[in-house]
Amino acid sequence: xxxxxxxxxxxxxxxxxxxxxxxxxxxxxxxxxxxxxxxxxxxxxxxxxxxxxxxxxxxxxxxxxxxxxxxxxxxxxxxxxxxxxxxxxxxxxxxxxxxxxxxxxxxxxxxxxxxxxxxxxxxxxxxxxxxxxxxxxxxxxxxxxxxxxxxxxxxxxxxxxxxxxxxxxxxxxxxx
Length: 176
Prior knowledge:
This protein is an all-alpha fold.
C-alpha cells in the first residue's frame, strides 16, 4: 500500500460483475416484478418437460435391468405418482402467483398505474388458462388418458422392446 493510496479514488466495479444478490435497491425502489412462467422454468412448463422425457428409453433400460412384470408395474405407478406430485407443486405455485398478481393489480390500480394494471390483467388471463390446463392434466392422470397415457404407453413400449431385445440376444441368435 502506497503512502498516498488513500487519496486515490477507488475504482468502481461495473454492475455486471457484481452478483445479483449483492445488489439491493433502496426500500422505496424494491423491484415489484412478478415471476412469470417461462419454458423450462416454473408453472405448467415443468409438467410439459416431465411428459416430454423419453419414457420409451427409460422402459427399455428398465427391462434390461429387470425384465419382471412387477418391476414394470411399479415403475408405471412411479411415473403416475411423480406426475401427481408435479401437478400439485405447479398448482401450489400457480395459486401463490395468482395471489401475488391480484395484490399487484389492486395496489397498482389504487396508485393509478393503469397501463401496468392492464398488463397484469393480461398475464392473469394467461395464468388462468395455465391453471385450467393443469386441471386437465390432473383429470387425465385420474382417468389414465391424454398425455399421461402417452407417457405410460411409451414406457410400456420401451419395456417390451427391452424384453424382446433380451430374447433376441440370448435365444434367437443361438444356433441349434
